Amino acid sequence: MSRIQLTFARLKSARRLALIPYICVGHPDLASTAPIATALIDAGADILELGVPFSDPLADGPVIQRATHHALSHGTTPPDCLRIAQTIRADHPETPLLFMGYYNPILRFGVDAYAQACARADIDGLIVPDLPLEESSELLSACRAQGLDLIPLVAPTSSDERIAAMVEQASGFVYCVSVVGITGARQDLAADVPSLVQKIRRHTTLPVAIGFGISQPEHLSRIAPFADGAVVGSALVDTIARAPSGQAPAQAAHFLTSLRKGL
Predict the structure, then answer these.
(1) Domain membership flag for residue 170
(2) 111 is in which domain, residue-wise?
(3) Mean pLDDT for the stretch of residues 221-244
(4) Which active-site residues does the annotation give?
(5) Residue 176 counted as domain residue
């Protein structure tokens, strides 16, 4: 079994959600990224999502946009992200690591070369939010050849037919987008999230993780009865951005510890 499969199986036995924090590589700087990752894992992160900065992060709201632009302005590149991932992996051999990034840098890097580089860095899976199903075959084949999971994003607007087609090709887990729109912390989650998860489960036995808007312990408590995981991004990235110099790892860990009260 893969690290992702093992993690979800273990947490299912414990009847607990997988907590999946997102951080942007290179934010607030490259030197801080691995210490932030370690602090989050030590604070209870079950899977870690590493954002590969891109100049047009169309699925992301203003908080993550600012983080990615900040990382790019400091010269962060995909090779830097691979190097940081290797550093994190060396210290945390059991924690699943994901790359969340857009398709243009993958295409520029070379699809097969990118999958091979991710495998060498011991990345477990990829999330590519701007890659439509109809254009995903090349990356899907490259990921399968390297043992990487290609994790789909299912939106509230997805039809039953499209959900079935998306999850048929999926592995690892399904990322359920809780709202129509971009990432960002929200006070309340959409009322129709349970029904969307139910639609997804009609077509797959893969775990379902919910993202976009998760920011409070109460959100975890609310989704725990019907979901397998929760992705938290913008609220955490904002916490890191606001942290005093040198305090980002501690602030990130404190945020995650507080969020885990909802588990």
Answers:
(1) no
(2) 3-151+224-256
(3) 95
(4) 49, 60
(5) no
Q: Rounded to 5 degrees, what are φ and ψ at 176?
A: -95, 115
**Using CA atoms, how far apart are residues 108 and 157, in angstroms rounded to an integer?**
30
**CA–CA distance, 76 with 13 (Å, rounded to integer):** 39
Question: Is 251 within a domain?
Answer: yes
Read off the pLDDT of each residue in 169-194 and give the average, rounded to a whole number: 73
The two tokens of residue 239 are 């916490």
Return the structure tokens found at 79: 């090779």
Is 89 a domain residue?
A: yes
**Residue 29: pLDDT band with limits 50, 70, 90:** very high
Separation between Cα atoms, residue 97 and residue 216, nearest integer Å: 23
Per-residue confidence band for 213, with pLDDT thresholds at 50, 70 and 90? confident
| CATH number, domain containing residue 126 | 3.20.20.70
CB 8: neighbour CB atoms within 10 A?
25
pTM value?
0.95
The two beta strands, 208-211 and 229-232, are parallel
* pLDDT beyond 80 at 188: no
Q: How many CA atoms lie within 13 A of 69 on its CB side?
A: 10
**Is the confidence at residue 185, as pLDDT, over 70?**
no
Split into its structural domains, the chain has a count of: 1
**Are 163 and 133 contacting, i.e. CB atoms less than 8 angstroms apart?**
no
Gyration radius of the chain's alpha carbons: 17
CB contact set of 91 (below 8 Å; sequence gap of 6+): 34, 38
